[in-house]
Automatic annotation (TrEMBL):
UniProt xrefs under InterPro entries: RutC-like_sf, YjgF/YER057c/UK114
Organism lineage string: Bacteria, Bacillati, Actinomycetota, Thermoleophilia, Solirubrobacterales
SUPFAM superfamilies (UniProt xref): YjgF-like (SSF55298)
CDD domains: YjgF_YER057c_UK114_family
Protein name: RidA family protein
Organism (species): Solirubrobacter ginsenosidimutans
Length: 127
């Protein structure tokens, strides 16, 4: 997998502008911040960590790892909370995904289907 960085563009922080990859595609549906018992982490950073752990668990079913992820799309319910907690969210991300930063988008939504969910993350990986 290779990062795509157009000449002269500012270096992105914590994501890539694009990724080039070849192989088997793995599509991971939106994962939220609850554990296998359906219990939510209490705060946004905790829910991000759990959602990413859930993604890693699904990837493992395809013999894939975090470094195979080419794209993540995050749906958050509170932009201000996200911006205020970037340090904790970044730490949670690195703890689960390492220093692999694929192409990403973050979108604020009015609500998620599960009322307690603060974030939902979907992934595309290439193995």
């Amino acid at each position: 997998m290779r990062r795509l960085q157009p000449p002269g563009w500012p270096e992105p922080r914590g994501y890539a502008n694009g990724m080039l990859a070849e192989g088997r595609l793995v599509f991971v549906g939106g994962q939220i911040g609850w554990d296998s018992r359906g219990v939510f982490a209490p705060d946004l950073a905790g829910q991000v960590r759990q959602a990413l752990l859930n993604i890693v668990a699904v990837l493992a079913e395809a013999d894939a790892k975090p470094e195979h992820v080419a794209r993540l799309t995050w749906f958050i319910t509170d932009r201000e909370d996200y911006l205020a907690r970037q340090k904790e969210i970044g730490a949670a991300y690195r703890d689960v995904m390492g220093r692999h930063f694929p192409a990403m988008a973050v979108v604020q939504v009015v609500a998620l289907v599960e009322a307690e969910a603060k974030v939902e993350i979907e992934a595309t990986a290439v193995v």
